[in-house]
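your task:
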Amino acid sequence: MQNNSGFTLIELLIVVTIIGLIAAMAIPNLVNAVDKAKQRKTMGDMRQLGSAVEMYAVENNTYPKVGSYAALAPLIQPTYVKTVSGTDGWNHGWVFTGDTTNGSEYTFVSLGKDGKPSVVTGGATSDFACDIVFANGQFFQWPSGTQT
């Protein structure tokens, strides 16, 4: 008699099915974790940029009187921040608005995962596509809780 060792087709199908089920559960969690990390990076960068603008204001008695991120970057780098990230965690450019007349306010906006402006209501949001808004030293709209 010949002794055939190995796996049967049924055993292989069961193993492949189990691996597929595990992957189906793990991949959405992985994608969510990656987006959450991008969101946290964005918020950290916004805090850093906001701190640089606040330091500028302490020394100049006014916020920068510029209306775009391109005009702001040379005013704060390298004096108030070593390097300036020109994009958020999703690689979308920052939206910066400032009071170009009085230098009394500023706002940084990340357009979120989709890179498109969304309605800004203020407070906590639960969607990766929602804008993150940092104005005058604090978050006006921010992500909180489980994101979709």
